[in-house]
Amino acid sequence: MESILSVEADEAQRQAVRENAKRVFQESGLAEMLKTLNKNALKGRGRFYEYDSTILLKWGTSYTRRHMWVEVNGNTIRFRLAPHRKCAITAPICDGEYHTFTSTMWADKNFLLNELNNYYARPIAETSSD
């Protein structure tokens, strides 16, 4: 009986995380920005993979495969980048792997769009599978 309640609680938690991510993606306008990026820049050749609080956008061929990893954590949006030195800029917040946008930062749609374009211009290259 306890394991059934635990499974139900886990599923409820997972559903809450999904709903929160959906809300943040919609309120920030990022969901529409990503769709537009795929439609206009990638000519619809990008593929979206959706997880509980993450969207992974992949594009390219087996030799030029690239991706953009965007995650919602609470009320923040995090773009996963290739490991790098911490950026000197204060917005977005940088920890050397993620650029994090607080709700105040992502409320500025032009700022978020500009950063999205920067991440598209320098995406993460995937390693080859051979």
Q: Please count the beta strands (DSSP E, at least 2 residues each).
A: 7
Percentage beta strand: 15-25%
- Provide mean pLDDT, rounded: 88
The biggest beta sheet reads: 7 strands, antiparallel
Overall tally of structural domains: 1
Distance between the termini: 47 Å
Q: Give the helix level as a range of percent.
A: 40-55%
How would you sum up the global shape? globular
Structural class: alpha+beta
List low-confidence stretches: none
Number of separate helices: 4
Q: What series of H and E elements makes up the topology?
A: HHEEEEEEHHE
User: What Rg, in angstroms, do the CA atoms define?
Assistant: 16 Å
List keywords for this structure.
4 helices, globular, alpha+beta, seven-stranded antiparallel sheet, 130 residues
Describe it for me?
The protein is 42% helix and 24% strand. The chain has 4 helices and 7 strands, in the order H-H-E-E-E-E-E-E-H-H-E. With 130 residues, it is α+β, with helices and mostly antiparallel strands. The chain is globular. Strands 1, 2, 3, 4, 5, 6 and 7 form a 7-stranded antiparallel sheet that branches.
